[in-house]
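Morning!

This is the sequence you dropped in the shared folder:
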Amino acid sequence: MATQENPTVGWIGLGNMGAPLATRLVDEGYSTAVWNRTASKADPLAAKGATVVEAIRDLGSQSVVFSMVSTSADLEQVMLDPELGLLTGDSLPEIVVDCSTVSVETSKKVREFAESKGVRFFAAPVSGNGKVVAAGKLSVVCSGDEETFAIVQPLIESFGRSVTYVGDGEAARLVKIYHNLLLGIYTQALAEILVLGEKSGVKREAVMEFINNSVMGSIFSQYKTPALVNLDFHPTFTPVLLRKDFDLGLTEARKHEVPMPITNLTRDIVESSIGHGFAKDDFATMLLIAAANAGIELKSEQADVTDGLD
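The structure's back. Tokens below.
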């Protein structure tokens, strides 16, 4: 029988982030049932022992249900749809934990509906990508009822190296959105100095090696090094998703009358990356936009560089 110490788990959404996150829970030994719109994406988890359900509402019998979806509209659909949503069915979980990056308004709407049904709702958006999850280096920011946090913390720590509780309500949504603004701005800064180095005769590999070993280096700069040096733009996070987060952040800026000129400019560059046909590539293609603006075309340096996640 499921208890707070040994809860049964449901998982909604097995995309680039959802699948590796759910896999960590299965590998930790939690009894896990999963749902995804494209059922075949659940096959690797089924091979590990997870139960695959046909409908979202089939997860209602689980103690804790996690969700990881792309947009605010997706979260509303999987939770609140009158015909399909988890929270509109007859059988309801005790707790819902959402790991998506969505608007404060959507999060509050789902929270209020969940609580009206006697379900605890907890926000736990994550920072990283599938490789970061696999390497055990994911960061998670959390908000909601502190008692609920105590219950779900062991589950979240199964996939989060760093788990930060920031308070009640939707505080975690704001922190994650602001984090992603910095993500875009930092990437644009790296792109500009790498293009400057290119035009002045310095290899991108050399610039990134120095940065990664300096106070300006980070886990992020390290694992973006193969993309920036060897132009490996296999998507971990697309410019379309980054644009969505910039729009969420700038909405908050307008609400609170905080001027954000650098953020606004970076948002336009992300938009430009989409316009140049990179919508399905990694957002590090911002480097190619910086190069085009400088009148040069970059080539892979085919360097032996690492993302630092091994």
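Headline: The beta strands are 9-12, 32-35, 51-52, 64-67, 95-98, 120-123, 126-127, 139-142, 162-165.

More detail when I'm at my desk.
O.
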